Amino acid sequence: MQSLADEIDALLPQTQCTRCGYAGCRPYAEAIARGETEINHCPPGGAATIAALARLTGRAPLPLDPANGVEGPHQVAVIDEGRCIGCAKCLPSCPVDAIIGAPRFLHTVVAALCTGCELCVAPCPVDCIVMKPASAVPDAPSAAPPAELNRRRFYAHRERTERRARERAAQLAARKLAARTPAPSGIRA
Ligand code: SF4
Ligand code: SF4
Ligand code: SF4
Q1: Are the beta carbons of 17 and 41 closer than 8 angstroms?
Q2: Inside any domain, residue 146
Q3: Is the CB of residue 116 below 6 angstroms from any atom belonging to ligand 1?
Q4: What's the structural domain count of the chain?
Q5: pTM to 2 decimal places
Q6: What is the mean pLDDT of the chain?
Q7: By alpha-carbon position, which residue is closest to atom 3 of ligand 1?
Q8: Atom of ligand 1 nearest to the CA of 117
Q9: CA nearest ligand 3 atom 7, residue
Q10: Are strands 129-133 and 75-79 parallel, antiparallel or unpaired?
């Protein structure tokens, strides 16, 4: 059976942008369900999401809180490939893996997958990622990707990130154990 938090989460855009003041859509949904916060803190969802949340929770449809940002046209991230140094620092920050690249290679954004969350902008050490209105970017759809696609891509991204962290921790532990284990007598290390 779905919990109230599940039902609220299903109405959120799943960009994981954190503009609501929470670590992502699910933590915000849980805070609403616990009655700790209002339903008007999600700029990507805007008035439509507030109205849907109001219908679900029976609360008043308040205007979007300007402290969280403003509702605007869909934007996408664009990388100035002439300035990109291939450092790959933007890759882990994208919750939906919309950036393609590898260390020492130029990186690019798949506009159709970009939610406009802006989370890749700050990590770039050479400031070569800018947000642009989707209407000004060839190949970018005019609307943001659907929440369900964002959710699937985010959960896959998180699962992969957590798995890599577990693998790294296991490798580190194995190396430490090997360094502490004395070589058998008669065998030179
Ligand atoms: S999309 Fe809305 S609910 Fe999700 S993290 Fe951003 S502001 Fe919060
Ligand atoms: S490319 Fe940047 S703005 Fe677009 S979804 Fe990824 S992190 Fe967000
Ligand atoms: S963080 Fe900036 S410079 Fe580094 S790979 Fe990404 S876009 Fe290129």
Answers
A1: no
A2: yes
A3: no
A4: 2
A5: 0.91
A6: 95
A7: 25
A8: 6
A9: 84
A10: antiparallel
